[in-house]
Amino acid sequence: MQNQTVSIEKIDFFLDHIACRNDREYLHKNIYRFLSAGTEDRHILYRNNTLYYIQNDKAKPEVESIKSHYAGDEFIRFNGRKITRINPEYYLGSAQKPSAFMSGIGSAWAHEWSSNNNNNNNNNNNNNGNNNG
């Protein structure tokens, strides 16, 4: 989705929300350029004095350290239209590390997929009279 409604006022509101103390003109240009470009899903994620530029749910190499007085522990997400506070446990487990569930979801899905295929093949063999037992 293209963020055609990105405005300096909304970017300013985001920077105010995170209590940014950096050169705003520079950040305005970078944030506006990033959020306005292309048709991909793009947003800015802020946490611990760092801006992460996210495109299609993947962090871009551009990461900016900024000076901020924001005291909250949550992630702040800005997509050019709205600001969302996200509990750290959404991205991190309760131990503040990537959760085992999130890090293992790819292999768990692949394992279940192959198990289902195996069961389906066994069922098909039995249904087709290919039972070796």
Based on the model shown, name its key terms:
globular; 21% strand; 133 residues; single chain; five-stranded antiparallel sheet; alpha+beta; 5 strands
Structure description:
With 133 residues, the chain is of the alpha+beta class. The chain has two domains: 8-91, no CATH class; 99-133. The chain has helices at 8-17, 24-36, 88-91, 100-127; strands spanning 42-47, 50-55, 58-65, 75-78, 83-86. The chain has a five-stranded antiparallel β-sheet. Helix 1 (8-17) crosses helix 2 (24-36). The radius of gyration is 22 Å and the shape is globular. The protein starts with 7 loop residues before the first helix and ends in a 6-residue tail after the last helix. 14% of the residues are buried.
Low-confidence stretches: 98-124
Strand order of the largest sheet: 3-2-1-4-5
Count of individual helical segments: 4
Helical proportion, percent range: 40-55%
Task: Output the helix-strand order.
Answer: HHEEEEEHH
